C-alpha cells in the first residue's frame, strides 16, 4: 500500500520565533482540551490515546510539564471552546478545510473570511468542498515498532494505506473504525499516536501562479490564533 500521506497543515517559518512559540503553546493547549473531550473525558493518558498524542505534541513544542498539568487540572475549560470546520475555495479551484477552536465564533469567522477576501477568494457554505476530502483516522506507530509489527497492525485494523515516516509507520484507517483500531493496538501492545485528518480524494495540480497564491492563503490562515489545522487538496508545483 502506498500513496500521499501528508495532506495536513504545511508548516511554514514565521517571522518571530517568540510569536511562533506562543501560537504553538496555545494550539497544544487546545489540542489537550479537545483530546479529553474526544476521549470521553478520560484524563489518564494511559487510557486515552487522543490525550496521549496531544501531550506528546505539547512536549515536542517544549510546553512545560507544569503547564500541561495545569491544563489537565482545569479541563472543564474545554466547555468554553467551540470546534468548527470552515470551507474555503481558492485560486484554480484549490480547496481548504480550516479546523478552528475558538471562544468567539464571530471573531474567528471574520478573520478567516478576511484572509480569503484579501486573496480574491471566498469561503463556501457548509458542504461546498468537503466532499473533495475523505475524513480518516491516522495511527502512527512508535519508532520502536518494526516493519513486521506495523504490517501486522495494518492487517488487523484493515488499513487502507501504510507508509514509513520519520516517527514510525503511518496507517490510514476509516474514521469510524478508530476506536476499535486503538483497542487492537493495545491488545497487540503496539504503541501508537492518533489523529483525525481530511485527505483529498483527487489531489489537484495548480499552475505556478495559482499555487503561489494558494500557499499565500495557507500561510495567512496558519498565522491566525484560532486555527488548529488546515487541510488542502493541491500539490506542490513541479
Describe the 3D structure:
The relative contact order is 0.18. The radius of gyration is 18 Å and the shape is globular. The protein folds into 3 domains: 17-80, Integrase, N-terminal zinc-binding domain (Arc Repressor Mutant, subunit A); 83-131 and 201-232, YebC, transcriptional regulation domain (Alpha-Beta Plaits); 132-200, Alpha-Beta Plaits. Residues 1-19 and 41-47 have low confidence and may be disordered. The longest helix is centred in the N-terminal third of the chain and has 22 residues, at 17-38. The chain is α+β, with helices and mostly antiparallel strands. Helix 1 runs antiparallel to helix 2 (49-60). It has 7 helices and 8 strands, in the order H-H-H-E-E-H-E-E-H-E-E-H-E-H-E. Strand 5 and strand 6 form a beta hairpin. It has helices at 17-38, 49-60, 65-73, 105-118, 147-156, 178-187, 208-222; strands spanning 82-89, 95-102, 122-124, 133-141, 161-165, 168-174, 192-200, 227-232.
What shape does the CA trace take? Answer: globular
Q: What is the number of independent domains? A: 3
* Count of beta strands: 8
Strand portion: 15-25%
Q: Biggest β-sheet: count, sense, barrel? A: 4 strands, antiparallel
CATH fold-level label of the largest domain:
Alpha-Beta Plaits
- Using only CA atoms, what is the Rg? 18 Å
Spatial separation of the terminal alpha carbons: 24 Å
User: Could you name the ranges where pLDDT drops below 50 across 5 or more consecutive residues?
Assistant: 1-19, 41-47
- Main-sheet strand order equals 3-1-2-8
Oligomer: single chain
Query: If you average the pLDDT, what whole number results?
Result: 81
The total count of helices amounts to 7
Q: What's the architecture of the largest domain, going by CATH?
A: 2-Layer Sandwich
Question: Regarding CATH, which class of the largest domain?
Answer: Alpha Beta
Helix content: 25-40%
Secondary-structure element series: HHHEEHEEHEEHEHE
**Main structural class:** alpha+beta
Query: What is the H level of CATH, i.e. the homologous superfamily of the largest domain?
Result: YebC, transcriptional regulation domain
Amino acid at each position: 500500500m502506498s500513496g500521499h500521506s501528508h495532506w495536513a497543515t504545511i508548516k511554514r517559518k514565521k517571522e518571530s520565533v517568540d510569536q511562533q512559540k506562543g501560537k504553538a503553546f496555545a494550539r497544544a493547549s487546545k489540542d489537550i482540551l479537545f483530546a479529553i473531550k474526544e476521549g470521553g473525558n478520560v484524563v489518564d493518558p494511559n487510557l486515552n490515546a487522543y490525550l496521549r498524542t496531544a501531550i506528546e505534541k505539547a512536549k515536542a513544542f517544549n510546553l512545560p510539564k507544569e503547564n500541561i498539568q495545569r491544563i489537565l487540572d482545569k479541563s472543564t475549560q474545554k466547555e468554553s471552546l467551540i470546534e468548527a470546520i470552515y470551507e474555503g475555495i481558492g485560486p484554480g479551484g484549490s480547496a481548504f478545510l480550516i479546523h478552528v477552536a475558538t471562544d468567539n465564533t464571530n471573531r474567528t469567522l471574520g478573520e478567516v473570511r478576511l484572509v480569503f477576501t484579501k486573496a480574491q477568494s471566498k469561503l463556501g457554505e457548509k458542504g461546498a468542498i468537503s466532499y473533495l476530502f475523505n475524513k480518516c483516522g491516522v495511527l502512527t506507530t512508535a519508532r520502536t515498532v518494526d516493519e513486521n509489527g506495523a504490517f501486522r497492525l495494518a492487517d488487523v485494523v484493515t488499513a487502507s494505506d501504510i507508509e514509513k515516516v520519520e516517527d514510525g509507520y503511518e496507517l490510514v484507517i476509516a474514521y469510524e473504525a478508530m476506536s476499535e483500531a486503538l483497542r487492537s493496538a493495545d491488545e497487540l501492545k503496539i504503541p501508537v499516536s492518533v489523529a483525525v485528518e481530511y485527505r483529498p480524494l483527487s489531489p489537484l495540480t495548480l499552475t505556478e501562479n495559482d499555487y503561489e497564491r494558494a500557499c499565500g492563503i495557507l500561510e495567512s490562515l496558519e498565522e491566525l490564533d484560532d486555527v488548529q489545522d488546515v487541510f488542502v487538496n493541491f500539490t506542490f508545483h513541479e
